[in-house]
Amino acid sequence: MGKIVAVTGNEAVAEALRQINPDVCAAYPITPATDLMQRFSGFISNGKVDTEMVLVESEHSAMSACIGAAAAGGRVATATSSQGLALMWEMLYIAAGDRLPIVMPLVNRALSAPLNIHGDHSDGMGARDTGWIQIYSENAQEAYDNTIQAFRIAEHLDIRLPAMVCMDGFIVSHSIERVEYIDDDKVKKFVGKFKTVNPLLDLDRPKSFGPLILTDLYHEYKRAQHEVMTKVAGVALDVAADFEKMTGRKYELFEKYRMNDAEIAIVVMSSAAGTTKDIIDEYRKKGVKVGLIKPRLFRPFPFKEMANALKKVKAVAVMDRADSFGGYGPLYYEICGAVMTLEKKPLMINKIFGLGGRDYLPDQAEYVIDELIKIAKSGKVKTVKEYIGVKE
Amino acid sequence: MSKSKGKKFWEKLPAGSVVLEAGSAVKFKTGTWRSMRPRWIEENCIQCMFCWMYCPDMSIKVTAEGKRGEFNYEYCKGCGICALECPGRKGVKAIVMEEEGK
Fold first, then answer.
1. What is the pTM of this model?
2. Which residue of A has its CA nearest to B19?
3. Out of A265, A284, B1, B16, which could bridge A99 as a Cys pair, Cβ 3.0 to 4.6 Å?
C-alpha cells in the first residue's frame, strides 16, 4: 500500500503528474487550476521531474504549444479551468482531430458573466463536443486515480485521443482530504513508457500535421474519429481493471450506489454525489428504495450501459451543475438519449443546482428524493426542468 | 466506398489526418485560384531574389545558375506579395500585377 496523506485535490493531481513526469507542460494560470500547475512547476524547479515547462501568454497558446509538443512526439500535460478552457476552444478540436493524447486536468469552474471563480460544470460541458475524452471525479482520491488512468487511456495505441480529468473547483481542488498515494515506481510501471505515433521529430520520415481536407475526405475523417470514441469505454474498463489489481480501488464507466433494487434514482456527477449518497442512506433507513448513478466517463457517454442501469427504475432525477440556457441541463440530454432505447422508460426530471459554487446541501437532495417518491407513486411529472437551491 | 480486405475506406485513412509523405504540396496546384497575374519585367530585375523569398508557395523558378527564372503559374494564387516587395531597378518595378484574362 502507498502513502496515506492529507492533501487538496490540486495537490494530489500535481503529485500524479510528478510521478508520471511528462515531457512537456505548457500552461497559463487560472483559478482554481493555478495552484495545481504552480505545485507542479515547483517539482520542475526542484529537479523532481525533467518536464519542460513552456510559459505562454494565454490558454490558447498553452493548448497550441501542447499540440505542437504532442505532434513532435512528447508525452504532454496541462491544466486549466473555466475561461481558460473557453479560450482554448478552437485548439481543443485540433488536439482531438489530430489524435494527440494530451492529458489535461480540468478544475471545473463557472463561466462568466457574471464573473465567478467557484465550481460548476459549465466549462467542461462547453467542451463536450470537442472530441476529448472526459472523466469526472468525485473527490481528490478519484482525481488522482483518474489522472493516472487517463494517461493509459489517452495514450493507448487504439485510442490516441486527448483526455480531460475533471474535479470540482474549490470543493475538491482546494479542500484537504485523505488520499492514498501509489508508490512512484508502481505509477511509472502502470503508465508505462510513452509510445510515439508519427512523431514530427522523426526527421527521417518527414510528415505534416493539420492539412486542409475539404469535401473529398473530411466526412470520412470524422467517421473515423467517431469510431475511435466507440473503443474508449472498453479501454477505460481494461485500464480500470489493471488499476484495481494495483490499488484495490474499483472504477467503472459510472458508479452505481444502492441501485440493485432501486425504484427511484438520482443521476449526479462529481462532488455532489458524495452528499447525495449520505441522504440516500437516510432514506434507505426509512425503507425508500432510492439509488444513485454517478457518471465517470462522460465522453464518450456509455449509453447502453446507462440504459441497462436505469431499466427497472420508475423515476429518475438528473442533476446538472451546468445549464444549456433555453434547453435542459447537458447531463439530462445524455440520460434521455440512453433511456430512449428502453421499452419501458422511467419518468424523468432535471434539476439545475450549485451554479457558480452555490452550496449543494442535504435539504436539496431530500427535496429531490421527496419529489421522485411522489412521481413514482402518481406516475406524473409536473415540471421537467427546475432550478433548486435558489434564493426566493 | 470500396471495401477491401474487410476494412472500409475510411478505416484505412492515417489517424489524425497526418500526411505521411514529404513534399506532397507539389501535388496541390493553387494556380487556378488566381484572378490577378504577376508579370516579370526582366530588364528591371536586379536579381535580389526577394520575390523568391517572399512567395508563400513555389511560384518563382530559380535557374541552374541561381538566377531568378520565369513564374511557375501552376502555384501562383496571384497574391501580389512578390510585386509589393519587388524593389525594382531605380524604383521601376520588375513585377507588376495584371488582371487575368486581359
1. 0.93
2. A208
3. B16
